[in-house]
Amino acid sequence: MTSVLDLAPAAPVVPVVVIEDAADAVPLARALVAGGLPAIEVTLRTPAALDAIRAIAAEVPEAVVGAGTVVSPANAADAVGAGARFLVSPGWTDALLAAMRGSGVPFLPGVSTTSEVVALLERGVTDMKFFPAEAAGGVPYLKSLAGPLPQARFCPTGGISLASAPSYLALPNVGCVGGTWMLPTDALAARDWGRIETLAREAAGLPRADARQAQATALRSPSGR
Ligand SMILES: O=C(O)C(=O)C[C@H](O)[C@H](O)COP(=O)(O)O
What we know:
- Helix content is 41%, strand content 14%.
- The chain is of the alpha/beta class.
- It has a single domain, classed as Aldolase class I (TIM Barrel), CATH 3.20.20.70.
- Residues 215-225 have low confidence and may be disordered.
């Protein structure tokens, strides 16, 4: 099963979307895809979320739509039933983990402490959401985890901005970052899809760690050897 962290190799950023009106889902997803962010996390925080996932899955084939705020086995089942291709949770329990595992789609359980990371590794899960990233310790915290727990890989989310994203993406244990900064509330309210596309394009241009490493290697050895 492909990991969520590998879903969008070209895009280092997963937009985290809160949709109030399902009618906005398709134009919003099209704007994100056009800007270069095809992996889209629709949070199950609003009554419109499942309809939004359904609409994106049906009408925007270039998008890889997933569900966020998955906090119960029922959430996982409903999201996959609506067409979610990945699941993200802010935290996890064994019951939630079993449901996400049984869903058949890639999933990212949320962690914010070292013990939660170790408990997931013990259960065979290496790819996790680090939430709430900034409040839980941010870049220095993840850097500290890379020493003792190099097998754990993270998608930090929570409080990340265009300015802070590059320092996360430069870490060896970060595969992507999640965030809402490319979806400002006023642009959503105004249905300003053009502005969202522009902000998405800016986010999609952020280099991720492996790209930085490849670039560094190429610079050291222009022949590629
Ligand atoms: O809904 C969920 O399941 C969450 O875990 C929360 C989101 O990841 C954050 O709300 C991201 O929002 P920003 O902090 O604005 O980037």
